[in-house]
Structures are given as C-alpha cells and as structure tokens.
Design a protein that fits this description.
The complex is a heterotrimer of chains A (about 280), B (about 325) and C (about 350). Chain A has a single domain, classed as 3-Layer(aba) Sandwich (Rossmann fold). Helix content of chain A is about 30%, strand content about 25%. Chain A has a 6-stranded mixed beta sheet, with helices on both faces. A 4-stranded antiparallel beta sheet of chain A has the order 2-1-4-5, covered by helices on one side. In chain A, α3 runs parallel beside α6, α4 crosses α6 and α6 packs parallel to α7. Chain A is globular, with a radius of gyration of 18 Å. The N terminus of chain A is likely disordered. By secondary structure, chain B is mainly alpha-helical. Chain B has one domain: MetI-like (MetI-like fold, Orthogonal Bundle), CATH 1.10.3720.10. Chain B contains 11 helices and 2 strands; from the N terminus they run ααββααααααααα. Chain B starts with a helix and ends in an 8-residue tail after the last helix. Chain C folds into 2 domains: about 90 residues, no CATH class; about 220 residues, MetI-like (MetI-like fold). Chain C is about 70% helix and about 0% strand. The longest helix of chain C has about 35 residues. Chain C starts with 7 loop residues before the first strand and ends with a helix. Classes of the chains: A alpha/beta (about 280), B mainly alpha (about 325), C mainly alpha (about 350). At the A-B interface, α2, α3 and α6 of A face α7 and α8 of B.
C-alpha cells in the first residue's frame, strides 16, 4: 500500500521538561470513516499532561474529526465508524463497557461557534455540566466564581450572573463555554478552532486564557491560524489530507522546532503559506 | 477633506424616488383575481360568524343568560335549554384527551427526532400522517365496538382501586359509553397534530447547543431534559393548544360513544356526560324549528371557543417556530 | 512497524450486559405477572400488559442504577418510555386498520357497490341491498367540493407566495385558524346560509360547500408550500425576459409546481372524504339513489356507515362496517396517491 510518509512520533512528543511522562491522552493508529468515506488514517499522537497540543493543517484534512474522535463525539454522526484506540490515562475510551458520556465528562470540548445554553443564565450555564452528569458538589457559588475566574470572565460578569448567557458578546460567550467545560473538572480540554468566530481582541483574551489553563489541564486545540499555534502551544501536529486522501500526520514535534526547522518539505510549504 | 466638501457649492442631492410600476391590464386583472381569492378566506370566516349569529339569535334571545346556566336541553318541548352541562362535558373530554395525548405525542416526537434511526424518519412521519388521515367516524366506530369492551376491566380496576381520586370514583358499577372512553379515542385523534407540531419545533433547536450538552458528559435524556425541552417549551404549549382545539370540536366519535345526560359530573368512568358537538350531531336530525335554532346557538358557542383556542395556539407556536407552520 | 491496520468498528450501541439485562428484566416481568395473575383474582389482557410493563420498568431501573448509576439509569428508562410512546401511536394505527378490515370484509359483496337500501327490510340479511347510492353521493359531494376549493385554495396560495400582498400575513394566519374550525360548525354554517336563509333545502351541493370550507385551508397551505419550492431564479428570469407578472406565474411558476399542486388538492380531498358531521345537516342522508346533487337529500359513504352502525340489527351493523372499510380504503388510496404524485416530482 502506498502510504504517505509518517514518522514514529512516540519519541518526539516529549514534554518541555523532557522527563519521561505517561501521556494523559494518546491516539493509537486511529482511523475514522463517515459511511465508506475515510477521513483519517493511522493517526498516532500522544498528549502529555498539562501541555497544549496544537493541530494545524488545511481545511478538510480531518483535524476536527480527529478532535471529535478523542471524546466520542464522532459517533453522533450516523454512519460514523473508526479504527484504533484512544487511551485516556492508559484506558481505551472505546473499550467495552465504557460509556460515551463518562468519556466526555473527562474530556471536555469547546466548539468553533460559542454555544451557551440559551434558556439558562450565566450561572446555570457554568453549573450545567454538573446537572447533566448528575454530579453533586457543595459550594456552587465558589465553583462558579472559580471557573469564571479561570476562564477570565469573572470580573466582567460577576454582577449579572442571573442574566441569560446568550446576552453576552461573542468572545464572552466563548469564555463562558470554557468556564462551563471547566466546572466538571475535565482531564483534557479539546478546542475546535475556538477563536475563528471572534474578533482580534476577543481572540487575544482567549489565547491568554488558554496559556494560563495549559499549566493545569491538558489542552488540544485545532486551529487554522499558524501564528496562534506558535503563540500558545508546546507541541504541534501537522495534518494533511483532502477529499480523496484520508488525513494523516505529516509531522509532529515541539512547536518551536516544528516552526523553525521542519523536517518535511510539505510542512515547510504550509507554514510558509504556500498552500492551505 | 471634510472642510473642502463643506466649502464647495452645495448641489441639492437628488430626491429619493419611489420604485413603482404601472401594471399592465393583464397584471391588474391577475392581482384582482388572486387578491379576491385570498380575501375569500376572511369572507367565509366572517360569514360563518354572521349566519350562525343570525340563526342563533331567536334561541339566544329566548334563553337569555340562562343559555349558559341551564342544565337541560329541551328546546322543542319545555323550551328550557342551556349549554352549561354540555360545555362542561366538552371541556372535560378535551382536557382528558389532552392529558392522555400529550405524553404520547411528546414521546413519539422525541422518538422520531432523537431516538429512531435516521433511515426510518420518512416512514415514521408518514405513518403518523396516516393516523391523522383516518376519518373520525372510523375512530368512533372502533372506539365503540373494540376499545370500549376492552376498557371495561381497566375502568373497573381504576374505580375499585383508585376510586379515592374523585374523577375515578363511580356511583354504580357500570362502565362504558363514558367520557373516559371518549377522551381516550379523541386522544388518539389529536396525537398526530401534537406530534408533528412538536417535532417541527424541536427540530429547529440548534444542533450545536445539543452537542454541547453531550460534550459536557450529559446523557441523551439529560440533553433532552436540560436543553431541548426548555428550548421547545412554548412550542409544545402551542402544539398542545392546537390539539385541545381539535379535541373541543370533535363530533362524530363522541356522538357514537357517549350516552348523553345533562348533568355536570366528574365521574368520567360512568356512562353519561355531554359535548356540544356531539349534542348537535345527535339532536339535529330529529330537532324541530326551535330545536334547530338552539343547536345553531350551541354551534356558535363552539365556534367562538375553538377559534379562540386555535388563535392563541397559533400565536404561541408562531413565536417559538417562526419559519414554518404545520397544517393537518 | 508494519503490523496490520487496526480493525474498523462502529462505536456506541449497547453492550452485551445491557442486552442481557434488558431481556432478563422483560422475561422476569412477564413470568412474575403471569404467576400473579394465576394466583390472584387479577385478570384481563390489558391489565396483564400494563402490570408486566410497569414491573419491567422497575426491574430495569433497579438493575441499571446498581450497575451504572442514577444518571444512566434515568437515561435508559427514558429511552424505553420514549420508545413505548412511539409504539403506542403506531399500535393504535395498526389496531384500527386491522379491526376495520376484520369487521368490514364479511359485509362486502358485489351488490354492495351497485344496490341501494330501497327495498331492504329489517329482517333481510346483510348481503341484500348495498351502498351504491352512498358511493354516488360521496363521489358527487367530494368532487364538487374539490371543484370549489382547489382553484380557490391555489389562488390563495398564489397570493401568499407570489403576490405577497400587504395582508398576506393576516391571510396566512386566518387560513391556519380556519383549519381548526370543527367540521360540524362548517356544516351548521352551510345549513344556516344555504338550507335556511336561501331556502335551498338539503342537497349534495350543500354538503359539497360545507366540505369545501374544510378543504380550503388544507389546499391553500399545502399549495403554498409547494409553490415555495419553485426556485426563485425561475421567476426572476421570466420577469427579466420582459414577461408580465401574471404570465410568469401562469406559464412558469404554476406549471413547474404542477404535481405539487395536485398533491395539495389530493390531500384536501383525503381530509374531507371521510367527514360525517357536516353532512348530517347538509346532505342529511337518504336510503335511495338521488343522483342529482342540486336537489334533495343525499347519502354518502360516511353517513351510510354512521347511520347503519347506530342500528341494533346485526345485518345493518355489518353493512356499516363494510362501508367503513370502503371509506378507509378510499382515504388510504388518496393518501398513497398524494405521496406518489409528490414523489414523481422529486424524481424529475
């Protein structure tokens, strides 16, 4: 079979401090299909604890699908199937008897367009994950403040927690969605182009939030914007694929190295802006 | 640059012009005909109100305010008649039907939208439409000869064991020809409209919001309860009211099943009760002149009641799902 | 590292434990209910099903709470309840259709479609006489109603979707309100207007007018939706060619939506073909043939069935069910026809 060149990334993805660490989340030989159309092929990627991993690549290369495979959102599309394993702290999330809802509880997700629950207030939005998953926790007020603070939104909304979440600006709504995901204390936070619907100043705020969160949560972010990847991530994976060929990882490594001395000419072409 | 503009000699900007056309003769005829046809709807509705009022007037004039308080219906004999009992029966049966139909309709709508495989979607909606297409006469005949005998045991059980709830208590152990049977049959008849309007409203909930609930670790039911149902609440209220409007006007099934009496009763398991529409259907063929005027008066009351319920329902549904309306 | 590619699989779905638990709970519920019904005075098929179902739900809840926790237990019980609702709606449909066929077939015979009840005595068997006069009545009444309300409904739809006049939202609103009018009120309306005020008496035509009132909103709204499917570019290109508005509508828009409009008309017919209540005070009913819709009381299939079924004689009831079967077949045929016509449009 004429497979595109793939590197063995297991050794490359070392956390910045270079100590041997068990990855929080690891994709092993992941493939994904919609019906008979293959979207991803043989993806290996390990995400070390408390690092920010950026996934870059041209549109249609399967980055978003990969993200949705990681927390079992992929299977919500009728006809979806997959191959390989996704290990969360060493356990396959697609293993027998593992419920998708518990996987999603541990692996949170922030979407491209901000989507706070329209029928709930800001406070209720933050607490919605607890309600949905049936988790009891004391001190709701403290939790709301803590999550909104970590998402960098507390000072802006602390006087109007009872107002509907939909009344905030786009950037604020996105930070509310981040706070909502943090409230259930996920091990991993997935972000699918979280800034693509936002203006530059909101984007900057979210990037600050991501950098701060990156020290306490494992973050995987899909982004269109290479500069954003360079600014906020520790590790970058470059995906390539299109309508006819399923997406694969071309190159993956510490962000500074990948952007300064890429190994693959296609990576270089992409980060130079020659295609994509 | 701004000052340069200000200093320049000011030419008055051209006036805004209307974009109007002069229609051809053909277009004028076309518009008149089409607009006339559209007006026919309003004209017919107006005529219904007018002619029912005209024919009801003699009866309403005779009965006065007793029309709403008297519990008898004997316009041709004693001349005493009023819709108090049949109005109460109409409302009882309709509410009973709504209480029974709403959970089933809501469940069916959720089943089709959220649970059933997508390839069954077309077949399931078609079958629900088919249920709506069955004539009410057939529902009535089926309710009378099939459902009623099968419900006797259930009615007896309810009366024996849950009889402490007032509506399930009975004075004598006779069941059937009751408002309970009517309510159940009418419930089946209004399931399709509540289901399809609810389905329409819920399908307009933004998919991204529902996915967000799942991504937070919510189960499918959690997503439905916390996100989908709150989103569709007013639409579901509107759908229920549309169903209620249908139930209030249901005629032939009730005329077949119910044994009429003119008392207000909460014992829905017993034979007896009333309904405006059923009364009209049952009494019309044998009614004399005074009787027919009185029946038209009852019909007018039904018309006003259903029009009011339907209008409010349409406003509620339109608010919650502005893009499309369902007509059955 | 050239190991074989990992196996492709579909994630989600139930685990073996779930299936076993579900089947086990159902089986246990049925067995326990059966024993209970044998040992106690409990009886009745409906009660059996209900008891077993409630028991099944309880067992399922207990098991999934223990194994999977409260949230997932609630989710699973909710899935069962939601599925049950769908099943109840479909079961009602199935039961009604099956019952009508079961009761109707014995009363059908060749003469049913040609004979009348003219010379049928109360002691004659069901195979004597027929509903020929009622079939004629239904055909005339529904046909005339379609003749009145189809053009009116389509023109209203043209107003709503092509002319988009100032009062279009108001018209649309009242069309919707009109679709909620109880059918018996439509009958009373024609009775007061036509039968009493204009002294025309009972007739098939009066019945047709009442049915037309009920058909109009269905046809108008369905036709409006069909016209909305005509691509806007077609209209604009016709206007851009210099065609006047009326020509673009009659030559381009209406022909494009032709089969859709036919579907709308058929749906309207299906809606009223089984109506009974408004006919009581307009057509009134008749035991012999009256082929003239403009004068004199007339029967119809629905009136025929209604009046037979209210009778105590077994032969009459059998005739009533036969008429109900014919009626439901007509409605089913119209329903299927509307779908087929709509499907041909999509196929093109």
């Amino acid at each position: 079979m004429d497979l595109p060149v793939t590197l063995d990334h297991g050794d490359l993805v070392d956390p910045p401090d270079a100590a041997p660490v068990v990855p929080t989340l690891e994709a092993r030989r992941v493939g994904a299909w919609f019906g008979d159309h293959q979207i991803l092929e043989d993806i290996d990627l390990a995400m070390a604890p408390n690092t920010v991993t950026a996934i870059i690549g041209p549109s249609g290369c399967g980055k978003s699908t990969f993200l949705r495979v990681l927390n079992r959102m992929h299977e919500l599309v009728p006809g979806a199937s997959l191959a390989g394993e996704v290990l969360l702290d060493g356990t396959d999330v697609y293993g027998r008897g593992i419920r998708p809802s518990s996987t999603r509880l541990h692996i949170g997700m922030v979407f491209q367009k901000p989507n706070p629950f329209p029928t709930m207030s800001i406070r209720e939005n933050v607490l919605s994950g607890l309600k949905l998953a049936g988790i009891r926790r004391p001190d709701h007020d403290g939790l709301v403040e803590q999550c909104l603070t970590r998402a960098g939104l507390w000072n802006e909304v602390k006087d109007r927690l009872g107002r509907p979440g939909g009344a905030l600006s786009g950037g604020q709504q996105q930070r509310l969605c981040i706070a909502r995901s943090l409230a259930v204390e996920p091990r991993v936070l997935l972000m699918d182009e979280p800034c693509s619907a936002l203006d530059p100043s909101s984007t900057r705020r979210i990037e600050e939030t991501i950098r701060e969160l990156g020290t306490e949560v494992t973050i995987v972010i899909v982004t269109h914007n290479m500069h954003q990847a360079a600014r906020i991530s520790d590790v970058t994976a470059f995906f390539l694929g299109d309508q006819d060929r399923p997406g694969t990882i071309v190159e993956c490594g510490p962000t500074t190295e990948l952007f300064s001395t890429p190994n693959d000419p296609r990576t270089e072409d992409y980060i130079q802006g020659r295609f994509g | 640059m701004v000052s340069a503009l200000a200093d320049a000699p000011v030419a008055p900007s051209p006036e805004r012009r209307d974009l109007h056309d002069t229609p051809t003769v053909g277009d004028r005829v076309f518009r008149t005909v089409v607009t006339g046809a559209a007006w026919s709807v309003l004209v017919v509705l107006g005529l219904i109100g007018t002619f029912l009022s005209l024919q009801a007037w003699p009866a309403l004039h005779d009965a006065g305010r007793h029309f709403f308080t008297v519990f008898e219906w004997d316009p041709d004999g004693t001349g005493r008649f009023g819709i108090a009992a049949v109005l109460a029966g109409t409302v009882t049966i309709a509410l009973l039907a709504l209480v029974l139909a709403l959970p089933v309709s809501l469940g069916t709508a959720l089943f089709i939208n959220e649970y059933a495989p997508k390839r069954l979607y077309g077949a399931l909606t078609m079958l629900i439409d088919l249920l709506a297409a069955i004539p009410s006469l057939i529902f009535g005949m089926w309710g009378l000869t099939y459902l009623q005998p099968h419900l006797e045991g259930t009615s007896r059980w309810l009366s024996d064991h849950v009889g402490f709830v007032p509506i399930f208590s009975t004075n004598r152990p006779v069941f059937g020809s009751s408002m309970f049977v009517c309510g159940l049959v009418v419930a089946l008849m209004i399931v399709p409209i509540i289901t399809s309007v609810t389905r329409e409203v819920l399908s307009q909930a933004p998919r991204a919001t529902c996915e967000a609930a799942l991504a937070l670790g919510g189960s499918r039911w959690g997503m439905i309860r916390r996100v989908l149902l709150p989103y569709g609440r007013s639409g579901i209220v509107g759908a229920s009211m549309l169903g209620l409007g249908r139930a209030l006007g249901e005629t032939i099934a009730i005329a077949l099943i119910l044994s009429f009496n003119y008392r207000i009763t909460a014992h829905v398991l017993e034979p007896g009760g009333g309904s405006i529409a059923g009364l009209i259907a049952n009494s019309f063929p044998e009614a004399g002149d005074a009787g027919r005027h009185a029946l038209v008066a009852a019909g007018l009351a039904l018309f006003v009641l259903t029009l009011a319920v339907n209008t409010v329902a349409r406003i509620v549904v339109r608010r919650s799902a502005p893009s499309r309306q369902v007509v059955l | 590292m050239t190991t074989a590619a990992p196996v492709r699989r579909r994630p989600g779905g139930m685990t073996h434990e779930d299936v076993i638990a579900g089947v086990g709970a159902a089986g246990l519920a049925v067995v326990v209910t059966a024993v209970a019904f044998l040992l106690t005075p409990l009886a009745g098929s409906f009660g059996f099903v209900l008891t077993a179902y409630v028991l099944f739900l309880a067992l399922l809840t207990i098991d999934s709470r223990r194994r999977l926790g409260g949230v997932i237990a609630t989710d699973r019980v909710a899935s069962v309840l939601v599925g049950t609702c769908g099943a109840v709606a479909l079961a009602a449909l199935g039961l009604i259709l099956w019952y009508v066929i079961d009761r109707g077939v014995p009363g059908l015979h060749r003469g049913f479609f040609t004979k009348t009840l003219d010379s049928v005595g109360p002691l004659d068997p069901a195979t004597d006489g027929g509903a020929g006069h009622a079939i004629v009545g239904t055909l005339e009444q529904v046909g005339l109603a379609a003749l009145i309300s189809t053009p009116l409904g389509i023109l209203t739809a043209v107003y709503l979707s092509e002319l988009r006049g100032r009062i279009a939202p108001i018209i649309r609103f009242f069309v919707d309100s009109m679709s909620g009018i109880p059918s018996i009120v439509a009958g009373l309306f024609i009775y007061t207007l036509w039968v009493v005020q204009l002294h025309k008496g009972f007739s098939g035509l009066a019945a047709a007018m009442a049915l037309a009132v009920l058909m109009l909103p269905t046809v108008a709204r369905a036709a409006e939706e069909m016209l909305a499917l005509v691509p806007g570019g077609l209209r604009e290109s016709a206007l851009a060619l210099g065609s006047p508005h009326w020509r673009s509508v009659t030559r381009i828009v209406l022909p494009t939506a032709r089969s859709g409009l036919a579907t709308a008309a058929i749906l309207g017919v299906a809606r009223v073909a089984g109506e009974t209540a408004p006919l009581l005070m307009t057509a009134f009913g008749n035991d012999s043939l009256n082929a003239d819709p403009t004068k004199g009381a007339q029967s119809s299939l629905s009136l025929f069935a209604y009046q037979r079924i209210r009778n105590a004689l077994p032969s009459e009831i059998e005739r009533g069910w036969a008429a109900a079967l014919v009626l439901i077949l007509v409605v089913l045929a119209l329903f299927t026809l509307a779908r087929l016509v709509a499907a041909t449009r999509k196929a093109r």
